[in-house]
User: Fold this.
Amino acid sequence: MIIDFHCHIGKGIRKSLKPGDLIKKMDDCGVDKAVVCPVEEGITVYNAEANQYILDAVNEFPDRLVGFGSFNPWFGQQALDMAGRFLGEGLRGMKFHPNLQGFMINDEIVYPLMEIAGEHHAPVYTHCGTPAYSLPFQILDLAGRFSDVPIIMGHMGFNYEYMADTIKVSGMADNLFLETSLTASALALFDDFLKMAVGLDSGKVLFGSDSPESDMAIELDKLRSLDISDEDMDKISGRNAEQLLGEV
Amino acid sequence: MIFDAHTHWDFQHERNEEGIRYAKSLGVEKIIAFGPGFGPNSHNSRQPNEDLATFAEKYPGFMYPVATVSPAMGAQAVEDLRWAITEKHMVGLKLAPGAQAFRLAGDDAMAVLEEAQSLGIPVFVCASTSSHSTPSSASLVARNLPRLKLVLTHAGSANYWADAIRAAKRCDNITLLSCGNPLAGMRRMVKELGAERVIFGSDFPCAYPHAINYELAKVNSLDISEAERERILCKNIAELINVEV
Assistant:
């Protein structure tokens, strides 16, 4: 079972991906399931329309897609109502992109949404590795306040500056997880860092491609090029995600 | 031909030969080589530069060594750079402001960069560490030194690649080296700047040959002509260091 834990679908100003095209790419790459969330302005402004697009896609491909919604906390009560509704109707988690949406991930403005995530047993995926909005120790702060909510740190820190800290904090809270897409540093460092993460706990690492930001095949090849055990590869490729989503 | 414009070497490493064989097996025929002499303590730049130049002599026509100096050393850094280029025939300057703890747009760096401009060599600089060096500070340098050939390694990396594209649009003397940024970033830099402003590099240390596969896959996935791909993979860097390919 291969699960891609991080894909975007929808039509954005700069990037777009239709559900059917994602499914075709998954078929080409041998990916069984993908977690999908909105794209660009769907994350920031047009949450209702973007989340409905995700829900429709999940209903069209229920065995292949798992939907995460975006609820910009700056919309206040409107965001809370929307989160409750979409999580009740079939979306399985939340996606935050603090530097796009304009808040620090551990800001109090996020807390009510985290409470709703907890009520719905919904994992929260957040971009990780961009100052000053979504740095690993800020996420650790949030994780400590909402220990019942699984939080996935996107891109494992994103850049080499933050990858070591991201992996370090993943070992400091049971509810923190790492996702592998982009990790835009030298692959050698990715290799080092991933082994560091696996050494801490291979059960915390989730494969993701960030399609269409990156290419699913290239991201899979990146993962497969690493010298780790079959057992760990199996867990990272899908079993960890299966377990995490199965708990939803 | 593939000319890898971003590789790092520890010339004591036991797997160097294996790494070179692997690179060549993928079609890499030339490489730009950076040494291990980074970090705030690398104030003695002559020895590491000499070691790298000597190491590169074993691979004539394949390995082109690039010097580094520590700008915080002031006049000594300028002198060391001139020595590395004129005496040791190194082909450029590599700066890592974050690791070397200096500000790219600071006075110390300016003295070294002015010397690089006079020498006509490209400067490979990391411009993705918030407090030391960003594409915006690089564009200030590029505007102040309009004949300086500035190559932004990692093209702004994860957080600054869009800013790197803007900097390159503002300054004709900025070129972007594509390793270490997302595929979407590379697609946009080629679309907005053209293939002649983008350079392939792998950031490949000898022990991790798969880095080349990953970065090559990015270039090969681009929807561009073969002539454009050739510019990215080879011709742009060759022109910057005046090597015929």
In short: The mean pLDDT of chain B is 91.
